[in-house]
Amino acid sequence: MDNCDLEKLSCSGGKLEPPFRPDITSYKMTVESKVSKVTLELLTSDCAASYKILFGDGSKTIKLNDGLNEVAIEVVAEDGTTKKYCIVFTKLSASSAKLCGLAIEGKFELYPEFSDSVYDYSSCVPADRDTVVIQPKLPDKNMQVTVNEEDSSKAVSLNVGDTVVAIKVSSADGSNSQVYSLTITREQIPVPVTFCNVRDQMKNECPVSLTAFYRPISINQSRPKHIFSASYIDMLTRRSRVDPLSESPLIDGWKVTEMDLDTKMSVLSVKCFFAYRGCESILKLAEVVSHVKDCQHKPPADLDPKEVTETQWYKDNFESSSNLEIETKHTSEVRNWEKRLQKAVGKDTVDELCTHAEEQLNIYKRHLPKPGDLMQYAEGQSPLDSLEQAAVQYASAIKLKPRESRLHYLLGRTLEEHHYAEEMYGLKQKDTGDAQELGSAKTAGRLDEILAVCKLHGFTGTPTLENQLKALDMEFHQLKEQGQSTKAEYVQTLYLWLSKKVKKDGQFSVANEESWLHRAFLKYLDAWSLSEDSWEYNLHVGRLLLVQGKSREALQHLQTALALRPTQPALRFYTGVAVLQQEGNSGTQEKVAALYLQQGLEYVMARALMAAGPDREKLDHGDPLSTVNIQFLRGCFSLGTLLTKNAPSEKAMSSEHIYHILVCLAGQGVSRCVGRGEVGQQLEWVLLDSHFALLQALIQQPTAVTGKQAWISQRCQALSALIRLTSIPPCRELLDMQEKVCQIGVVTVPRSSHALCLLGVTQLAQYDSEPGSELGQVALADSRLSFQASIELEGCSQAGDPPEKLTKQPWWQERLAQKVRTAKQAASKSTGAPGASEAGASGKASGPGRGRGTPGRGGTAAAAAKSGAAPRGGKAAPAAKAAPPPAARGRAGGAAQPKAAGKASSKTQLSPSKSKQECNVPQTKTEVIEAPSSSNTKLAAPAITNPRSHAPRLGLARALSRTEDTHQQACSLYQEVISMAPEVHDAYIELADLLVKTDPLAAVEIYSRFPLKPVSEQTFDDAFITGEIVRILMKQELYDHILLCPNLIAYGKVMGLGCLEKYIDVLEGKFKTDLLKSMYAGIHGKSVEDKDLQDFFRFKCWI
């Protein structure tokens, strides 16, 4: 009697959503535009029940209007009980032009999720997908859809970067249309490509990665057009808001997407990645990755165990039942830091604890920050919190089963991941007791203290890291002799802290007992001591012993592991690294080492190319063959160095190929770094070293290569920019590299105004590193000549004879003398009579190994190019890891070098954990680059006219500001720079710094000329200008000056009231209440008469 359900409900012309069930009362149905009516079919469950259609005339035939039509059906049971069913009919308008769904075949995710009223989408696909099929879904079969003006079923060819797909929908009546835009991004090709045409290679290589542009971006108004891959220009402009190649400030709208270049590049011909193995396929760039899976020449997936078992070391130590004796002695123990982690012991079993740890690790990996992300996390929500929890779970599991070796190993991997979390992603624990952990302010304070100690011991200017350490060592011994042990201990702390910055291979991190890497090493040792026959534990112990310079002990572990697992690529690779670090290697041993190293590198290449999507990068930084593992990259570099000396065997990579891969991998790694920690700086070292090795290799190519001079110049400009913008602090090795690069650039195109300007910057940096030395004075004179030559050549052709101000420089004259000596030596050899005085001169050069170019404003080492004043805000930028001087110092890198400043800076200083191959850029006999003569200028490059620029004037002003007698000339040049480039902050700051001591108001007048943007758009650099105006006027007690109030307001709005507290106290003491009221009102954007402010003013007794 009370049954008021429908037994059946259906409609003509379509299906209900969801399918009918008596207990479901709400339904939807969409019909095409040509459907004008539908008929309902209904049946009640109880024959005594009745129903009523509440729509229109109440009949079963429903006449539909365009759009929504809501039909209610009321069912009445025999006893009067009612139930209402509702159907919402959507009749498509014949003029509607909207999709009801959009997808990409293969289920690739759309961002954002599809909505018919959202018209712009993006999606990412693997690098090996060169075509996709778009799947637009139409709500009305009478509507029409095209994809890129073609049939929607046709596959869309993808560019190598971004492809914009236009999906055009036309209404059923043809009156309207709508375009949906879908940008499909292919993942970056993980390894470098080689174009078949050298001109294509020159034209389409990114200045950072030296491989094909990926999602190219050009800098607006750059001439010639400066183009970078998107991820690299984003990385560089986060460091400094300037054009990396020209150092011009970036204007609003500076970023221009080069979609046409992406399209043109994608069809250019390239070689297979495995051409060195015999593949002769010529492919389009867009198809090269998809070719890899079917390439018959790709490296074999399974390595031949005989390449291990037939070696002499294997036969000597493992062919019989006896094993290689390992000198490592270790006993597992529980350390204090490990006890602090063991706080999850409770009801959970070991398996449950491990499961929880894996879950936390997955959460950590999912939430790792990306470059540009805001590093703000709620309490307990940081990825580092998840990583910490994983360590707690594993440590607690060890407490339950202390003899379970696998648990010790897993904790070691987690602790090693901590190292990457902090040094690559900038994640820091809020409360840390580690004395080595410093906030940015504390770091800046220590650097200030170190620079003060340097000045006490005669190291003025911008001393290199080596000189800073020398000054600290002198101060330490002096304090000890004076009996000031407490101060001496503090200086020793500074020395140890700074020493961390000098290593570029992680040696300090493993040696430091408080570091995550050292703790990970101990856990690997614990695991190995409990299971000495594990190849995996031997591998990790061995590779971290290598970092510490214990190559013989490391080799014992690695060979033991390789004997257990002969085909494991990582074991072969690290065994090869260890072999190269042994003394007295035979040619056979070096060949085996080269084979093992190449097999490891090929495994990484194949893994990167074959894996698709998320599988390509699993974020397992502890993987020994991870592309951000510095040991792996340095091992590859040692292979390149080895192949530079020895001709590669059949199917072996060339040294240039290896360096090219390293530039690509290191560049990708640096662009992924969020913080400027140890890992990022080590990756930068690999990038710079490999860049420089490729530059040397290009110099040695036959002169007949078309456009070689232009290509060398292009590479020099790119590498010089990377050095200027590096986060590595000034050190001797970097100074040497920068000078060589700039000299090569000038020798290649002697009349290039920009190249001469870069050389001048480098020479000025050399002076700043040793201002009191004779060579420092020579460098200062040379820098002025270089800047003057750069200015004089503006508007002139780059073709012609070198300018006089270049040819009179000592390093250039030494280069010419070297050419004469080399020619005489060659002549004497051809006659069979050796020339005693010229013996051994070939390939060498004298002349200073000086010079690091100054980073552009915003770089961490920018002080080298500035006036010697402290960086803005009075704080030094945090120092970074660097390395000891290379053996390369004092040799020519295609150009002659000036003489080294002293024995200490010219000697080879090898890290004990690295072989010579690892530490040095390969030193082979290099070709001396000649300036293009009038006869070959057309072959090298078309004649180019030097543009006018503020940069050499700014450089010359800085050089002239270094000596008091030329200050007036410097001031005039600064004024010229301001008139040419009024947006360059440095010119105002450095000119005002020259004037402030003698004429403070003149300095204020200079600052006031800076074209400030509206306060809401001002940057911290702008705030420095307003802050200096405030500082000077307050110091001069000019409280009524017309510029004081507006600059107090501007400075406070950008930096906050906290930065004005000391000035507010002074003004209150001087009873400048009207000024204070105006300042507060201005900062808060209110009137002085505002009621709330009036109450505040009364509280402050200003009224």
UniProtKB/TrEMBL annotation:
Where are stretches of biased composition, namely Gly residues? Answer: 846-859
Q: Which UniProt keywords apply?
A: TPR repeat
Signal sequence region: none
Low complexity bias (residue ranges): 830-845, 860-907
Task: Name the segments for region: Disordered.
Answer: 818-940
Swiss-Prot/TrEMBL TPR repeat ranges? 535-568
Q: Name one Pfam family in it.
A: TPR_16
PANTHER family (UniProt xref): RING-TYPE DOMAIN-CONTAINING PROTEIN (PTHR46016:SF1), ZINC FINGER, RING/FYVE/PHD-TYPE (PTHR46016)
Q: How is this protein named in the record? A: Cadherin-like beta-sandwich-like domain-containing protein
